[in-house]
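Suppose a classmate hands you a notebook page containing two proteins, each written out with its sequence and a corresponding row of structure tokens. How would you begin to make sense of it? This section walks through that situation. The first entry is reproduced here exactly as it would appear on such a page.
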Amino acid sequence: MQIQYKPRRGWLATIFQIEILQGMALTLKRLFSRPITRQYPDERPQIRLGFRGQHALVRDPATNDCKCIGCMRCAVVCPSRCIRIQSRKGKEPNSRRVIDNYRIEALRCIYCGFCAEVCPVNAIVLTEFYEYSSLDRASLHFTKEQLLANWDQFAAQLDMPADAYVNPFWRPRGFAERDLPAPKRLPVSPEWSGEQQVVGRQWQRYLPPEHA
């Protein structure tokens, strides 16, 4: 990355305040141009894959329940501490944990997507659905049942089977496929996978031989 600094201002530019004149010229130019404001809801934006919208818990078609295994990674990594999980051990030996409650306080969420990135089984997702305003706070404190209902509502609007949907945040950037758990080795565009955008202390492992 190359950093280019602004050239030093001369005494003429200091006297005549060139920056202010440039700003006024830009203001006058935009004053007589066509407005670019989108007339929502008559004109709806095109929502791209990976937009961070309404929270949902992905429903497992085999069990008809959420895919969550109670590892608590999403609650630990959440910077706003808006995720609360209550789980218990299953009755059968070697069975996964049973999720009694999974709560997300959407009003505190900053929509960073960390929860979806760290989930090893892709159980949590920020869907591309964004029209879910409310007149009361309680309806934006999502419970497990509400989060599953959010997924059902989102899946019904997809133009593909729900099990074929892949959210880009399920495939973290900056990691080679060999370093990801099996459920996160998902087919995404090369731009999103970003295997060349290696981060962390192990970056030297990915250098070409001539630079190692």
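The notebook's second entry, a different protein, reads as follows.
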Amino acid sequence: MTKKVKKSEYYNRRRRMAAAVLVLVCVFCLSGCGVFDFLEGESAREIDEITQEAAEEEIREETEREAQEKEIQAASSREVSEEAASAETLPPEPQDYPEVEENLVEEKESSISRSDLEQKREEIGLTEAGITGLLELQSGNYYFKQLDDAGKRVYVEMYQILTLQAEEILLSTIDVEVLPGIYQAVINDHPEFFYLSGYTYTRFVRQDEVKYITFSGRYLYDSEEVAKRQALIDAVVDAKAVELIGNDDYETVKAVYEDLILSTDYSMESPDNQNICSVFLDKKSVCNGYAKAAQYLLNYFGIPCIIVNGTALGNPHAWNIVEIDGAYYHMDVTWGDPSYYSKDTEEKAGAPDIDYSYLCLTTAEISKNHSVDAEFAFPECTAMHNNYFVREGLYLYGYDDGLIGEIFAAARERGENTVCVKASSIGVYQELYDNLIDQQKIFDYFGTYQSNGEYKIAYSGNEDLCTISFWE
């Protein structure tokens, strides 16, 4: 008899690379200086800035003002050179995870007046009437609802800017500390923003006081390419929709879970692995792409689905919470894909193509190896009715020869060579393990007869979630 156990440790801990910080210095009188850039999910980090002291008097002689500016600019240039020379860059360590793109700093010079910026806002629909309409349009979005009134206003401003791929648009806040959280809320509510890699803001400062800030997206593609890709995504999703729609929301969620796993390989090779293009167009992605694609598809079917940011086994991770029949469930498509943790060809041979252990879990279950970020609140998931194993009759409250025989017989009738069951507790899990594996009763139900006269079967156990999978 040959037994085989999959790896229970899904991946190694990530090793982060230390990156050098480049200080860029711009000197203006009430003009853009100190421009900072952030990527999705990163905390705000101010690089540094030096600004020209504003004039003490309203009117100065033109020649005196120019002389002062030249003197400050010369000093600033020397400071940039000194900081850049002292920066140290460490080489990246080999790792099994997509590298987090370094924060990029864009040096910008701007002399746009406040009135010109106000006009640019109006041109993209950010009038008072336009903002009122946008607030109502976004009112049902999960992350939007967690913001205060001021945050909601900035949210819709960002949304409009990113939708139109606008740049250098005046925001209603001067507090740069709120930008990362609000931006995260926007992109978590809108998986359709596949063309973003973060944002840039510009602070307009006088006498060390921020007077106003402008906001721009960092766009991966121009509007023409965005439209082309959106058309391709629409075609893929429309084709999938015909096959994925179920008799109820659970069946649709299950079909989406299965489709994404079977049609996508976990891989860092896709240049779009942080967005839905990687799943729908490239067929290979990482956790953020899986989660956004699941949200995109389920939103298409009108099923509430949110992105969850957090960690899994201590490493950054993203997954989903779905709402079915008024109750919430965790769903991790990435961890349901064996290609995520099974890299060895021999190890994957004959193994199930889908791991259903992460389809519709409770908070207590997912918390065994996942932790959510504390910045936003998430619904407590306590229901079990639409858990995969409960719905499919694979949830066991004890070792029962008759019921187990029925489960394996039904799998054979369907032509399946894999079976996965879930125990109601760790005690029941151990009871199943003792009977089916230690006492080898599994061969009463399953197994492949070998030429040497022995039966062969492989199995995998997940003690965290009390599931055991068998395959011939």
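A careful reader of the second entry would note: Confidence is low (pLDDT under 50) at residues 1-60, 72-109.
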